[in-house]
């Protein structure tokens, strides 16, 4: 593997990973809100929630694509983050998020695959290409960006009949609820929760995955309403 991923950890120049992620999500969310306001002259809280959620998912889709592209090197990088944790005592996740990405490597798969190498400290299934979590995230990254973009556009500019958007939403949101719930179950039944502290489990496993259950569950409600109502009134359009 290129040393690019390793180099970011000690780089004093570039953009902090967490700040970069926030800026990307903020820009994508603001774009949708701005277009909506320009077209309809108003803003809507439900539209904001899904603009934010879809923006986060689009960023994560890229990270998951990087997981696929660099899948053969995750185990090696996971060992790096484990050794770094032993040396410093710092959480690999926070160490990665507070590291800096050189401007020339902003789109480098070698850099963003480290999201999963660092997360493997909490769930080592990401070092196993046959595991459920590994393949579920790759599948999400390679496929869910398409319906995500479609729904983001439909909720913003109303280019699809509400019924069609509702049907796409039911399919997309249900698979998120189902897969995220199944990941929780597999994490528990495999005993992986016993290998990390209760604090790390709640912060990095339960809380993050709860978002991918709670928001899509609300998305199911919104999608059903779009189908039954036949309009976007729930979204303020």
Provide keyphrases for this structure.
2 strands, 11 helices, mainly alpha, 237 residues, two-stranded antiparallel sheet
How would you describe the overall organization of this protein?
The radius of gyration is 19 Å and the shape is globular. Strands 1-2 form a two-stranded antiparallel ribbon. The protein has one domain. The relative contact order is 0.13. The chain has 237 residues and is mainly alpha-helical. The protein contains eleven helices and two strands, in the order αβααααβαααααα.
Arrangement of strands in the largest sheet? 1-2
The CA-CA distance between the termini, in Å, is 49 Å
> Can you write the helix and strand succession as a string?
HEHHHHEHHHHHH
Please give the radius of gyration in angstroms.
Answer: 19 Å
C-alpha geometry = globular
Helix content bin: over 70%
Number of DSSP helices? 11
In short:
With about 240 residues, the chain is mainly α.
Please render the helix and strand layout as text:
Blueprint: H1 4-7, E1 15-16, H2 17-40, H3 45-69, H4 74-88, H5 92-97, E2 100-101, H6 109-112, H7 114-119, H8 132-143, H9 145-157, H10 162-189, H11 198-229
Helix pairs in contact: 2-3, 2-9, 3-8, 3-9, 9-10, 10-11
């Amino acid at each position: 593997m290129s040393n690019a991923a390793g180099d970011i950890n000690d780089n004093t120049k570039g953009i902090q990973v967490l700040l970069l992620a926030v800026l990307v999500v903020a820009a994508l969310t603001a774009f949708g809100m701005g277009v909506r306001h320009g077209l309809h002259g108003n803003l809507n809280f439900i539209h904001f929630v899904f603009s934010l959620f879809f923006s986060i998912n689009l960023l994560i889709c890229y990270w998951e694509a990087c997981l696929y592209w660099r899948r053969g090197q995750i185990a090696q990088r996971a060992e790096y983050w484990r050794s770094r944790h032993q040396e410093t005592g710092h959480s690999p996740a926070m160490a990665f998020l507070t590291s800096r990405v050189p401007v020339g490597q902003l789109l480098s798969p070698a850099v963003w695959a480290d999201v999963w190498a660092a997360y493997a400290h909490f769930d080592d299934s990401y070092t196993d290409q046959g595991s459920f979590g590994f393949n579920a995230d790759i599948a999400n990254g390679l496929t869910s960006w398409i319906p995500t973009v479609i729904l983001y556009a439909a909720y913003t500019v109303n280019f699809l009949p509400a019924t069609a958007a509702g049907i796409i939403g039911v399919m997309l949101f249900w698979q998120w609820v189902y897969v995220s719930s199944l990941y929780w179950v597999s994490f528990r039944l495999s005993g992986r929760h016993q290998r990390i502290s209760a604090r790390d489990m709640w912060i990095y496993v339960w809380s993050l995955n709860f978002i991918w259950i709670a928001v899509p569950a609300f998305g199911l409600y919104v999608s059903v309403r779009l189908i039954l109502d036949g309009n976007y009134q729930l979204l303020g359009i």
